[in-house]
Specification:
The complex is a heterodimer. Chain A has a domain at about 1-115 and about 130-210. Chain A is about 70% helix and about 0% strand. Chain A has eleven helices and two strands. Chain A starts with a helix and ends in a 12-residue tail after the last helix. Chain B has helices at about 5-15, 15-30, 40-60, 70-85, 90-115, 120-140, 140-145, 170-195, 195-215, 220-245, 255-265, 275-290, 300-315, 315-335, 405-415, 435-440, 460-470, 485-500, 515-525, 545-560, 570-575, 595-600, 600-610; strands at about 150, 160, 165, 245, 365-375, 380-390, 395-400, 420-425, 430, 445, 535, 565, 580-585, 590-595. In chain B, the strands form four sheets. In chain B, strands 10-11-12-7-13-14 form a six-stranded mixed beta sheet, with helices on both faces. Chain B has a four-stranded antiparallel beta sheet with strand order 6-5-8-9, covered by helices on one side. Chain B has a two-stranded antiparallel sheet with strand order 1-4. Classes of the chains: A mainly alpha, B alpha/beta. The interface of A and B includes residues 84, 101, 212 and 271 of A.
Chain lengths: ~280, ~625
């Protein structure tokens, strides 16, 4: 149950990055999983130099913000006018380059960042014993989500992003400087993925391919929750996390399959997703 | 049909790509030793090429980007391998066929679910379902699939029965088996592309909504091509097990789907041989780069960079780049052949005097009627309780100031949007909620205010799409017939082109037409379904005054035998054409009468002229 919550919270964070990028830019970022892995490695390097987990988190987030900005400036920008398929292909290509770059630099072997000392140990939750770090993860993700929520719902940038989700053409027509907004949003989205990569590193192992599963799972989260919806990503992520961990407790072999079966069910019953708006493609 | 003398030549020309392909594949074994290739490598390339044939039909020709083809590759492979190892059969052909059928069956299920959403969702969903197959393979089905170990010991293939049994025992034998299968698969794919079915697939890639609006059951076409692609993948998967003697679980990996996408795009999507070329690049680059210390490990990253560059600059891959280069060379050698068609303009007739040829008031039976038609958007009632009757042969204009609800009303007539309340009847049948495709099949067709054409198809192929919908119904699996063999369809295209004065432009890509010509093509697409009721949404939008006069004349010539409803802002056009005029104001019908009476109607003047200048109605 708590495992599901932790996993779900991480998925929410990754999927949130994906969904705000899509909402504002109209681009499905197939490189999102690779950015997540890149964040974990940035954290790993920072940790090895400083020995501080806080530094690792800061490095992961800052580095990915920079990488996101470079990718948007260098490539994604060329694709706004092109069909969705081309955007998917381009970001998919970026994912290959990033993952293979990580493999070339760090090798294919799995690495690990230990949980920070302030979060080592186990907490007695009366019903169960539970690693402190996982509870801290919940808190960290919670804080990040609240921060994202404020950015999206209390700032001018957020207003533009949300307006873009509703009607992208109209936002352009209104003469809002979308290029700068797009840059910020892509950077933020990448940052969310990288940050999630660092904080998940002590729970899973760090490897160049670690992003693939996360990418697929966050797609599932988005399909269940509905693209472009803040609450859709939150609820979808928590549902996905719970399904994965609850089914794994009963029969591990079926946990992933159960997740996809749930997605199929949502597609049949409510194709636009739980929080999706009818009619939006 | 051409004269019998010409047939052998045409037959040879028709098979030119196959002949070239067979020549290359026959020569390859002799060339292999010179560049250190092996049959094993050639076999892999052919197998990926075969896998890619199906994917190219799906992505290159229909525009459906799937990231889940590994599911069918793996499914076909494991079914075939299991049958041979168990052994249920010792005949490779039977096992391969079973694998192909199984993959196609999975294709039906995954396709049904994934195609519920278009565009980006489709890519995400196929990727997710592809992963589901991987997870099914490695644990719940591990008893049959060997889980993470895969299935080892796939016997060497034997074909045929009894005394006709052929045992294949070495890689060169597998090579010839693959050559035969690939060439047949290539021929089949090319037939599909050149068939009426293939024409509709390309129209779906270009503009799926319009293909549906002219009467094609787009979801069914998509599902069919998805299943075909799954079958190709299943066959290729089965062959993978045979050529390796081992069926690996990585057939199900996301990387397998990704490799297919990358190979197809590098080679060139929409070319059929593209995936094969891409497989050559992928597998050879790997082999070649291994010889360089330090770079070997980077081969996939280099490939990724090539891929991103190709997507950015040469969207149609190596084959596409070759075609561009070839065209450029040809253009240089023939500098004379400039755009000679640009000067062809239909002869212009002076505008006919208004109302000189006014027809008698329409008295035919009612063809299209609405009863209490209403559309609400939240608190706003865009169309409010409109009842309306259209008689056969009539030209009816629907006018009203901006925001009067004309477009909403119109879109409900064409079943593009569903009404909140009320009924639409066509020849006495309730057609409310049938959807644009079925309504078009019944005989109501709409031209759009903003051009909805198939930009990279020629005018001929544009017009073919509605003519096919008319001739074949909403779905017709004519996959093996040549697209230009049907004389009635060809005649239909010619007739439609003639009626919108585009005969000289039949072989021009629609994207290269001038604006006025595109507008005429837009009307032609609606007209080519041979509708009984034609709905024209601002047919002269964006036209110059001269073009408007031409268009009015054109619409009058069309009007014989067709009932027309027209929404238009240009009052010259409205009063020049309409037998009767319906006036909408704030969503309500405030008047309906002959043009003269409308002009004199005080309510109309109050509502309409209040917001517009008087001379427009004068």
């Amino acid at each position: 149950m708590f495992n599901g919550l932790t996993l779900g919270a991480l998925l929410v964070l990754v999927a949130m990055g994906l969904t705000i990028i899509f909402g504002a830019l109209g681009v499905v970022n197939f490189a999102h999983g690779a950015l997540y892995a890149l964040g974990a490695y940035a954290g790993l390097v920072a940790y090895e130099y400083t020995g501080s987990f806080a530094a690792a988190m800061a490095a992961g987030a800052a580095f990915l913000l920079a990488v996101g900005i470079v990718i948007e400036r260098g490539l994604i920008r060329l694709y706004y006018e092109r069909p969705a398929e081309d955007q998917i292909l381009a970001t998919f290509g970026v994912a290959i380059v990033l993952v293979e770059g990580l493999r070339a630099i760090f090798g294919g072997l799995a690495r690990n960042i230990p949980a920070p000392s302030w979060a080592a140990g186990i907490v007695n939750l009366r019903v169960t014993l539970y690693p402190t770090y996982r509870i801290d993860v919940l808190a960290i993700v919670g804080v990040s989500l609240v921060a994202l929520y404020f950015i999206l719902y209390r700032t001018r940038l957020g207003l533009i992003v949300r307006a873009g989700i509703e009607d992208q053409l109209m936002v352009n027509i209104l003469g809002i400087n979308v290029t700068r907004t797009f840059l910020t949003v892509f950077g933020l989205g990448a940052m969310a993925a990288g940050f999630a990569g660092v904080i998940n590193a002590p729970i899973v192992t760090v490897s160049p391919d670690m992003g693939a599963d996360v990418l697929v799972q966050s797609f599932v989260v988005i399909v269940i929750g509905g693209v472009g919806s803040f609450w859709g990503a939150v609820v979808g992520g928590l549902i996905a996390g719970e399904i994965l961990s609850l089914v794994a407790m009963i029969e591990p072999a079926y946990s992933q399959v159960a997740l996809f079966a749930t997605m199929a069910l949502v597609l049949i019953l409510r194709p636009q997703g739980l929080f999706g708006v009818e009619g939006r493609q | 049909m051409t004269a019998p003398v010409a047939r052998p030549a045409r037959l040879a020309a028709g098979f030119l790509p196959e002949v070239a392909l067979v020549a290359v594949l026959l020569a390859l074994p002799f060339a292999l030793p010179y560049f250190g290739g092996t049959f094993d490598l050639a076999n892999r390339i052919l197998d990926w090429g075969l896998f890619g044939l199906g994917f190219d039909l799906l992505f290159g020709f229909t525009g459906l980007l799937s990231f889940g083809q590994a599911a069918f590759f793996g499914a076909g492979g494991f079914v075939a391998s299991y049958l041979l190892i168990a052994p249920v059969t010792d005949n490779a052909v039977v096992a391969l066929a079973a694998g192909t059928v199984a993959a196609a069956a999975f294709g039906v299920v995954v396709g049904y679910l994934s195609l519920r959403r278009a565009g980006i969702y489709f890519a995400m969903l196929t990727l997710a379902f592809g992963e589901m197959f991987f997870f099914l393979d490695i644990s719940p089905l591990a008893r049959w699939t060997g889980g993470e170990n895969g299935l080892a010991g796939v016997p060497e293939p034997s074909l045929g029965f009894g005394i006709f049994r052929i045992d294949i025992t070495d890689p060169s034998g597998v090579y010839w088996l693959l050559v035969v299968i690939f060439v047949v698969g290539f021929w089949l794919a090319r037939r599909i592309i050149g068939s009426p079915f293939g024409a509709v697939l390309r129209a779906i890639r270009e503009n799926a909504a319009r293909a549906a609006a002219v009467g094609h059951d787009v979801p069914k076409y998509k599902l069919t091509v998805f299943v075909i692609a799954a079958a190709y993948a299943g066959l290729a998967g089965g062959l993978l097990g045979l050529l390796q003697g081992y069926m690996p679980p990585d057939a199900f990996y996301l990387d397998t789907s990704g490799q297919l996408v990358v190979q197809t795009v590098i080679g060139g999507a929409g070319t059929l041989v593209g995936p094969l070329i891409g497989a050559v690049v992928w597998l050879d680059l790997y082999t070649v780069l291994q010889n360089f210390a330090g770079i070997g490990a980077l081969w996939k990253m280099i490939l990724g960079i090539i891929f991103v560059l190709l997507v950015t600059v040469f969207r149609h891959g190596l084959c596409g780049a070759a075609v561009v280069l070839w065209r450029r060379l040809m253009a240089q050698s023939l500098p004379e052949s400039g755009p000679a068609v640009a000067t062809v303009e239909p002869p212009r007739v002076a505008a006919e005097p208004r109302r000189s040829s006014r027809r008698p008031p329409p008295a035919g039976p009612v063809v299209l009627a609405t009863r209490n038609l209403t559309k609400r958007y939240g608190g706003l009632t865009a169309v409010d309780d409109v009842s309306f009757e259209l008689r056969q042969g009539e030209i009816r204009a629907v006018i009203g100031p901006n925001g009067a609800g004309k477009s909403t009303f119109f879109n409900m007539l064409a079943n593009v949007i569903p009404p909140s309340a009320g009924v639409i009847e066509f020849k006495g049948d309730d057609i409310t909620g049938l959807g644009a495709t079925l309504v078009c099949q019944r005989g109501i067709s709409k031209s759009f205010q903003i051009n909805q054409i198939f930009p990279s198809l020629t005018v001929r192929d544009n017009l073919r799409i509605p003519v096919l919908a008319r001739a074949h119904g909403k779905f017709h699996p004519a996959m093996l017939r040549a697209v230009n063999r049907d004389a009635t369809v060809n005649a239909g295209i010619e007739a439609a082109a003639a009626s919108v004065q585009l005969v000289e432009r039949l072989d021009t890509p629609a994207a290269e037409l001038a604006y006025g010509e595109k507008r005429r093509l837009e009307i032609g697409l609606a007209l080519a379904t041979r509708p009984q009721v034609l709905l024209l949404d601002e047919p002269t939008a964006g036209m110059s005054p001269v073009e408007r006069v031409d268009t009015v004349r054109l619409l009058k010539s069309i009007a014989a035998g067709v009932t027309i409803v027209i929404v238009e802002h240009d009052m010259d056009v409205v009063f020049g054409l309409a037998d009767r005029i319906t006036v909408l104001f704030n969503g309500r019908k405030i008047a309906e009468d002959a043009p003269d009476a409308i002009q004199a109607n005080p309510d109309v003047r109050a509502a309409y002229l209040g917001s517009q200048t008087a001379h427009e109605l004068a």
